[in-house]
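Summary of Year 1 activities. Much of the first year was spent building the evaluation harness for sequence design. The harness presents a backbone, in tokenized form, and records the residue chosen at every position. We chose the following record to illustrate the format because it has been used consistently in internal testing since the harness was completed.
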């Protein structure tokens, strides 16, 4: 999935909102309070339910410009990237990418079928999140 959208907020503002969310998630699931500078290559385990966990690894972080992470489970890997391109002091363009690699033949078929159906809702939800960030400025 790829989404590119222009927002009427400064690039540093959007970047800070994303990173604040990441730091909150890490604190919630590990009890550790990190700084932005400690995020690069940081890994932690996130529990979604009693039987569902994933390893999250921050793969790339560039101040006010880029944030990439990978979520790994026993069934698949999700790679997510945010590229933040400043247009001027008051607006930026967000380029969001999400790729999923499934393990095993049946998992690949299941993910392909569900992915097609859920893609519409994921894009809608992501655009709504971008709008909320823009409105919070």
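For this record, the design step produced the sequence shown next.
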């Amino acid at each position: 999935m790829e989404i590119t959208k222009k927002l009427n907020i400064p690039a540093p503002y959007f970047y800070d909102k994303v990173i604040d969310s990441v730091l909150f998630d890490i604190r919630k699931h590990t009890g550790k309070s990190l700084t932005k500078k400690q995020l690069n290559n940081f890994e932690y385990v996130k529990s979604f339910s009693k039987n569902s966990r994933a390893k999250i690894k921050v793969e790339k972080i560039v101040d006010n410009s880029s944030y990439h992470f990978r979520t790994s489970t026993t069934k698949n890997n999700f790679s997510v990237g945010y590229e933040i391109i400043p247009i001027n002091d008051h607006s930026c363009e967000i380029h969001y990418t999400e790729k999923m690699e499934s393990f095993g033949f049946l998992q690949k078929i299941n993910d392909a079928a569900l992915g097609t159906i859920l893609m519409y809702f994921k894009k809608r939800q992501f655009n709504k999140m971008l709008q909320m960030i823009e409105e919070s400025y």
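The domain at 2-135 is CATH 3.30.530.20 (Alpha-D-Glucose-1,6-Bisphosphate; Chain A, domain 4). Quantitative recovery figures across the full test set are reported in Table 2.
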